[in-house]
């Protein structure tokens, strides 16, 4: 009896360890050492706190447009950089000099290197143009079937993917290593605004596009520094979240985007209502994400959020931190600090900046023990 019990215990210990070993590996079995290290360190770090991320952080701010890569609106407020930096490759498909928001790709490359050298994390999204109409990513004319094998834009799309791969290949740190990247293609998949979104592609088409892209970058081109992210927009149910999931073999991290919105010129009541709605949505979203991530052994992240112009001076702690503190997520990223938009005649920014009314609250967010910035993560040696 005792021996039988012992054997059972050993058996379960082995099984648990095997599944633990699997959990700590990215889907790319040939992932570089730095990429594998980052993946397992992200998993460990999520238990300690949530990293703060900001899109285009080093490239420009609300009140400044060009930079040598040292300035950052976040740094101006807390004297520390974000831990995670987001970049977008929109227009790399044409091998353009600048991305869709006008940042030269040479600069993006330099910023990515700087972040890696400092010990932070880079994530890349791709607002790729519509391959059929050559309109923007927001031109939701059906196009997914056209780029799949057999489709009439297949050849074009192969070139577009090749251009993505060629850029990623050039991303190297001062140590000469390929820089690991959290790659988040075809994001907000359950929204109807992008050509890969739910109004423009069937579930099967979306899944095929995702798999095909991963296979192409990983196996055909042989890139081994990518950690692949699945990303939806806000959602209500676990079924909705999982509907277009391409499968555990194609995804390393699971995430969603969810912004707070309010009416223009909101009253105090409008603000209160929009905050309540946001808090409820993200609490529901994060708890579904948490269960999904655990069940699939993937790392969860809150890939995009924000409240345009941060029109609530306590937003950082009362809307965001107060909810995310209850979950173990890898990072939360707020979108870009563009500043004034001439065409739309409005301000477009989601991060803090020096002098903004929410800055004192951002300092409280920074000081919270469970938020992680560059100084915290640099100590963790994420790539070692
Ligand atoms: C959107 C807006 C756009 C921008 C795009 C890609 O959310 O910020 O102005 O072009 O992201 O960065």
Key attributes of the depicted protein:
384 residues, TIM Barrel, alpha/beta, binds beta-D-mannopyranose, two-stranded antiparallel sheet, eight-stranded parallel barrel, 12 helices
Q: What structural category arises from helix and sheet content?
A: alpha/beta
What portion of residues belong to β-strands?
Answer: 5-15%
Percent in helix: 25-40%
pLDDT average, as an integer? 95
| Overall spatial form | globular
The order of strands across the largest sheet is 1-2-3-4-5-6-7-8
Helix segment tally:
12
The largest pleated sheet is described as:
8 strands, parallel, barrel
How many domains comprise the coordinates?
1
Low-confidence stretches: 15-22
Please report the distance between the alpha carbons of the first and last residues: 45 Å
Which ions, cofactors or small ligands are bound in this entry?
beta-D-mannopyranose
Describe the protein in words.
- Helices cover 40% and strands 15% of the residues.
- The chain is an alpha/beta fold and 384 residues long.
- The strands form two sheets. The protein has an eight-stranded parallel β-barrel.
- β1, α3 and β2 form a beta-alpha-beta unit.
- It is globular and about 55 Å long.
- About 2% of the residues have low confidence.
- The structure holds beta-D-mannopyranose.
- Beta-D-mannopyranose binds next to loops.
- Beta-D-mannopyranose (BMA) binds next to loops.
